[in-house]
Amino acid sequence: MHKLKVFLTKRILKFLRDEADKNPDVYRKWYNEFSVFIKEGSLDPEFKKDVIDLNRYEVNLAEGFHSLKDYAKMKTKTQDKIFFMFSPNKIIAKDSPYMYPLTKAGIPVIIANTHIDEIIFREMDTFEGLKFSNIETDTDDVERALKGVENKDGKDEASNSKIKEEEVTTFSLWIKNELQPYVDKVVVSKKNLVGPAMVISPISSSMRQMAFMKQMMDENAKSGAPRADLRGLTFEYNPNDELIGKLNEYRKVDLDGASMIVRQIFDNCCMESGIESDGKNMIRRVNKMMNDLVDRGLARGTIEDQSEKKE
Predict the structure, then answer these.
(1) How would you classify residue 64: left for phi > 0, otherwise alpha for psi between -120 and 50, otherwise beta?
(2) Can you list the domains of the chain with their CATH numbers?
(3) Radius of gyration (Cα) for the chain, nearest Å?
């Protein structure tokens, strides 16, 4: 009976592979309806090698949907990883701070839109000799892939740093102290980041969502303790960003004001990265920053009025 099951299953899988090659549009429509079953089959220890390439994914550098074999053909010559990230769709993924440096470098990234995708990739570990790597958490793999890739703009990014070399350590330690208890590590980014910084979590967004749901049912959530998904974060700042350069100078003259700004940058990065930060504190901080800004504007206006009267 088992032999019959194996024979029939392999015949059906071969039929689906042939159909996917001959009629990709027809197969895509069918896959949209039954993808959940194909993905579940990708975890079957007996058939996963036959099932895995029936899955289809969006990729940052190409239109349409693609198999893992398609991805292997897209990779760069020096690339030894299959990069992926979790995102509901390609539009959201393209705006991710994790995605931008790789897209700019011409490195393909699979956009996995269900939690089970990451489980499949972690279970498989490799495909055709390429190891799966999540760009949200496997930052060392990303940096190695980016290293040596020619900058398409032809610019030397390192020479644009707004932070003096002798102040990097002090500035980084100050940031780490301000962002306790959430941030364990502060690093200077070697990537082509858009904006002042990004936040990296030790767990991916798909795993983080499941962890968050679990903790919401736990007593710690009710006690006000820091959530597990908001601990052990890495704050990676862009030394070439104007705001970061000005923040380093501003902290020397107004520690309280600089503290508010770095905390706001952190919350902004969390939102961009899909990490749900402390919304209530952020709102209170933004209100105070707006109030201070208005006060300064009014004070400036009063000084200008007085100057005009004297004249």
Answers:
(1) left
(2) 2-146 (3.40.50.11260), 160-277 (1.20.120.790)
(3) 24
Residue 164 to residue 261: CA distance in whole angstroms: 20
Dist. CA 88–CA 115, nearest whole Å: 10
What would the two tokens of residue 156 be? 């030397």
Q: Put the strands of the sheet holding 130-134 in their side by side order.
A: 62-66, 57-59, 110-112, 81-86, 130-134, 126-127
- pLDDT 10s digits, 29-54: 999 999 989 998 998 888 888 899 89
Residue 126 carries which side chain, given as an amino acid letter? T
* pTM exceeding the 0.90 threshold for the entire prediction: no
Q: In 3D, which of 157, 154, 152, 117 has the Cα closest to residue 136? A: 117
Per the CB < 8 A criterion, the answer to whether 114 and 162 are in contact is no
pLDDT value of residue 149: 67
Give the integer Cα–Cα distance in Å for 265 and 275.
13
Do the Cβ atoms of 152 and 106 come closer than 8 Å? yes
CA 68/CA 253 separation, integer angstroms: 54
Residue 278 tokens read as 């402390």
